[in-house]
Write a structure and sequence with these properties.
heterodimer; A: Rossmann fold; Rossmann fold; B: Dna Ligase, domain 1; five-stranded mixed beta sheet; 11 helices
Chain lengths: 286, 367
């Protein structure tokens, strides 16, 4: 498993909010190592077995913590992200609709500090058997050896549930986020899976917009030896129309599904035309 | 949110970028009046948000108010690439000596603002990038640092701008970056940026603002271009409405329809955590869209709960004025309850997206 393992100790920013409290409970139920909550002005309160603090600095003075998950509303998310990037190694930003100029600043600061950012606009990360830092339904996941990396939340669920339904399971699943500017690129995650003893197969789920998949294809050709299978959504999307979140748009000649599929296939990646084909591809490798 | 040229120019002017004298008109009579007041040859430019306006015949020229009236009349009753022309911009005709290109955009790959500038403006920048990439100067700005005027001058020098224009060109690049930053833009672009005997002028202006930053630009909500969207809803050419939760899953739903030989009529993403009410509204929207013959609703609930979805479906079906066959795929969070509610109401459903898509296309082909 990658990024989220038995050494991850996580705090929840925005734990007293509606989203934060609901998902903090779900993460605890799944066995995730949540050690503290942070909401400025609510220090000293309790959240189940967890203490709530006013600041991350205060948490780091009292205990070992190395990760954060952020449920803070978009207008305040940059502030929350900077606070956690300053103190921690892994930050998962669930929040949707963060201004892209804020995201650029967040990623620049994270680069300087060497902090890994997952998201924004992501379902998060799950390592079945270890825990989840995210909002995904847990019953569709199962412990196993397939690593999934995706730009889309619900499409991750589609693939995970088919893999689970076929009697297999996942090492780690990561949603890198649907926004134009996100913390992780496909290559970084694929490299981690390559080096991860728990992962034998990788599934990469891309979509129209940007050129992240083309870049990943080049990377895979040179650096990845484990089998990678891919799916690209949006084959039928017309250019110039924004399809859902800000990332999914074909602009000019760039970002089409065709260009991504071609790049991946010429890098030796098998590209499924429908989700169920992935299952057969994995089985053929076995 | 893309701005009309006349609104983008107002923003640019406000930041100190020189734009041609010009005024917006909603009617041909208004256009004629403006031309009378300006009393010189003018350009009549249709105000649309689609690109490629010039090639599509959206810009006309006139030497007198009568010609201006006629051209405005034609433009205001036409469509440019499917978009109705609601406004025209009447602008002084410039004396062009040379055309440059400059833009600032969000560079996804580098996660930083990217300035692009070229001494060969007025052309399709994508074509230039393809055929003569060395003629475009690219410069990434650190999003946490200041961008200073000297950096604009450095870019101007690399463009090959002559010494007498270096300061004003550098200044415009600097000012355009200020617009980009201050207004939370995805893109701020001037193409062409023209050199005239009176100085350097932004002959065109493109400004695309980040919808997610609108909370700190409340005034922009008053613009005609602003639409508050409950759903990501896009109308397409076909006749099978596709609804899904999440962009990736909805896009894939469309792809599965096409793979089975059908044509999607809509892309409608209900997002995460949709309530029964939202589901009903989404269904009402596509029922009201006349080309739709079959609806394919594809939900794999994460934070969206299948029982909420089922309640929304049942309510929408009860109250629908037009009966349209509905193929449902419903799984995920609370699926037992959701599926039980549908069964009780006599509504059939599928659990596999691929099977459901196939069924929707078969149904479409049966009549």
């Amino acid at each position: 498993m990658i990024f989220l393992d038995k050494d991850t100790k996580c705090l929840v920013q925005g734990i007293t909010g509606k989203q934060g409290s609901f998902h903090a409970e779900q993460m605890l139920d799944y066995g995730t190592n949540i050690v503290a909550g942070v909401t400025p002005g609510r220090g000293g309160q309790k959240f189940g077995p967890i203490n709530v603090y006013d600041s991350i600095e205060e948490v780091t003075e009292e205990m070992d913590v190395n990760a954060s998950i952020i449920f803070v509303p978009a207008p305040f998310a940059k502030d929350a992200a900077f606070e956690s990037i300053k103190h921690l190694d892994l930050v998962v930003i669930i929040t949707e609709h963060i201004p892209v100029h804020d995201s650029m600043q967040i990623m620049e600061y994270a680069r300087k500090k060497g902090t890994t950012v997952i998201g924004p606009n992501t379902p998060g990360i799950i390592s079945p058997g270890i825990g989840k830092l995210g909002i995904m339904p847990t019953h569709i996941f199962n412990e196993g050896n397939v690593g999934i990396v995706s730009r889309s939340g619900t499409l991750t669920y589609e693939f995970a549930s088919q893999i689970t339904g076929a009697g297999m399971g996942q090492s780690t699943c990561i949603g890198i986020g649907g926004d134009p500017v996100v913390g992780l690129d496909f290559s970084t995650v694929l490299k981690k899976f390559e080096d991860d003893p728990d992962t034998d197969y990788m599934v990469m789920i891309g979509e129209i917009g940007g050129n992240a998949e083309e870049k990943a294809a080049k990377y895979i050709e040179k650096n990845i030896s484990k089998p990678v299978m891919a799916f690209i959504s949006g084959t039928t999307a017309p250019p110039g129309k924004k399809m859902g979140h800000a990332g999914a748009i074909i602009e000019g000649n760039s970002g089409t599904a065709e260009s991504k599929i071609n790049a991946l296939e010429s890098a030796g990646v098998q590209v499924a035309r429908k989700p169920s084909e992935i299952i057969n591809m994995i089985k053929e490798f076995k | 949110m893309k701005l009309y040229e006349y609104n983008a120019k107002a923003v640019f002017k406000n930041e100190g970028i020189t734009v041609p004298e010009g005024y917006m008109a909603k009617t041909s009579a208004e256009a004629q009046k403006i031309a009378e007041n300006m009393n010189r040859p003018v350009a009549i430019k249709s105000q649309v948000l689609v690109g490629g306006r010039g090639k599509a015949g959206g810009i006309k020229f006139a030497d007198n108010p009568q010609e201006t009236f006629k051209s405005a009349e034609i433009l205001l009753s036409s469509h440019i690439k499917g978009e109705k022309v609601k406004y025209v911009l009447i602008e002084e005709k410039a004396n062009i000596k040379k055309e440059f290109y400059v833009s600032v955009a969000v560079d996804r790959a580098h996660k930083k603002p990217l300035i692009m500038a070229s001494a060969e403006g007025g052309v399709d920048i994508e074509e230039l990038a393809e055929n003569n990439p060395e003629k475009i100067i690219k410069y990434n700005v650190n999003p946490q640092d200041d961008f200073l005027p000297y950096e604009g001058r450095e870019i101007a020098r690399k463009m090959g701008v002559e010494s007498s224009l270096i300061s004003s060109m550098g200044g415009i690049i600097w000012k355009l970056f200020q617009v980009f930053k201050k207004y939370d833009a995805n893109l701020a672009e001037i193409n062409p940026l023209i050199v005239t005997p009176e100085g350097i002028i932004a002959a065109d202006a493109k400004l695309d603002l980040d919808d997610d930053s609108i909370f700190r630009h409340q005034k922009m909500m008053d613009l005609d271009e602003y639409e508050s969207e409950e759903f990501a809803f896009v109308k397409l050419e076909g006749d099978i409405a596709v609804i899904g939760n999440g962009a990736g899953l909805t896009l894939t739903g469309m792809d599965m329809i096409k793979l089975n030989g059908g044509e999607p009529a809509t892309f409608l993403d209900i997002g995460g955590g949709a309530s029964a009410d939202v589901i009903k509204k989404a269904l009402d929207l596509v029922i009201d869209y006349p080309p739709v013959k079959v609806i394919f609703l594809n939900v794999l609930g994460g934070i969206t709960r299948a029982d909420d979805v089922a309640r929304g479906i049942i309510k929408a079906l009860e109250e629908a004025e037009r009966k349209i066959p509905l193929v449902i795929r419903l799984t995920g969070t609370n699926e037992e309850e959701g599926q039980r509610l549908l069964t009780e109401a006599g509504v059939s459903f599928e659990t596999s997206m691929e099977d459901a898509a196939k069924k929707a296309v078969t149904l479409r082909n049966s009549f």
